[in-house]
Here is the input.
Amino acid sequence: MTTATRRPAKRRPAWQREWVRTPGDETAVRAGCTFDLAAAERVRSFFARWLRHSKGEWAGQPFTLMPWQWRDVIAPLFGWKRPDGTRRFRKAFVFIPKKNGKSTLAAGIGLYMLMGDREPGAEIYSAANDREQAGIVHREALNMAEASPGLMAELQVNRSTHNIAYPRTRSYYRALSSDAPGKEGLNAHCILCDELHVWYGRELWDTLRYAFRARRQGLLFVITTAGDDPLSVCREQYDYAKGVLAGRIADDRLFAYIREADPEDDWKSTKVWRRANPAAGIIIRQEDFAADAREAEKTPASQASFKRYTLNIWATAANPWFKGADWDACAGPGPVNEDTLAGRDCWCGMDLASTQDITAAVLVFPDGPDRFILVPRFWIPEDRLADGDANAAYRVWAAQGWLRTTPGNVCDYAFIKHDLAADAKRFRVRQWMFDPWNAESLTQELEKETGVERVKFGQTIGNFAGPCKDLERLVLARGILHGGHPVLAWMAGHVSVRQDPNGNKRPVKPQGQDQRKIDGITAALMGLAGAQQGKGTGGRSVYEDRDPITI
Here is the structure.
């Protein structure tokens, strides 16, 4: 058939022209999914008729969805249907900066799923890492319910037990945190996961994602801002959602909505502010953006916070020491070939602070006048890999050989001593640089077995000042070669430093339940200190002679 006689392409139905926006939507259409505008409008009507804002300038007013809330989230999330009439999406990942109305939107969805979905015995939960965070969305739902006489005629609200009951369908809406008992027995219809970027570990997430199996159209709704841990559950879900939106991952059950600036964007540009923030000009005023940007110009830490919380750009730490591009540039052509280092001088730094998680040692090899090669060693208790709360990357690294396992549920120092003694035979280890707080016994045995001098390195800012300055300079000058070791790169990506009034720095470990580790960077600094010193000092270290400096 010639071009002149070819039949014109069949015009798509109006609903497809309007609501087919991603490769996943195209796949869904081919699978028989359709868009039901009436179903979506039903949700919008529920918000406007039954929900009332409870605070700020809109307190007491009907919850009229903002244009982005309607067109970009509510309509596609609730309008897409499968051939059997159930909703297409079972999971939603909504990624927007702070102060764009996340909590209010999530609370409204929770109340709709409680009442408007007509699900018998529905269990609705606002979930978060701790009780306080879990209570933010749930308290907003409580406030909205109490602000609406129509809702209060249907609901039973008990603030002391944090329960919203809907007797008509024997349903309830509660807050849920990681320390709540009985999480494994949930029969959820909807779970609203707030600020996934601050969830530590995987236990709560992995429990909740399987809590819908008895429901025909349950919904796991995630709403979060960017985090600073590239190996967190949040980053895992973010990368997955980006893949779905780009068509690299086929998953027509996931709804993804991502608003963010690019790390290379001009963070002071008004266009960038508006592109990242869907509620710009509605909730957040232009003058507020400008004031925050002026404040952010004053310090690097303030700038990092502005980029993360206002522009939704992933950070590596609240005050990252290294830029990812600088660290990556020191990888070289590939993993370090240890065979080429056999018999060469090196200094070994050890950070054996943890017995139930990662323990580290780093061999530092001088390689010319101002260049050093890092060869890390990492160990973890074998039982830790089976812990549901452990970082999922640990299992991958262990399988690939980057992370060695020791038997049992605590790090076996005898196992570590065996590995390090083998390194002393293979390489010319000049000194064991160690923290006297936790490695006295191990290093005594190593010194006796290998004949290699052990040198105490107290964890003070005075001891770290020199090697911190050296490592920072060497990374910028590409004077470090680390071969792209993934465990060390992970630690370098989020290590922060603390600085005293004289400009001296020391690495800072994440606090509390934060699962990120910096042991490898600490060990590298200790090994670098020994390598720069060049040789022992008659059994005493210069680090023992220095007075501690505290900040």
The first strand starts at residue 34 and ends at 35. The radius of gyration is 28 Å. Residues 535-551 have pLDDT under 50 and may be disordered. The chain is about 35% helix and 15% strand.
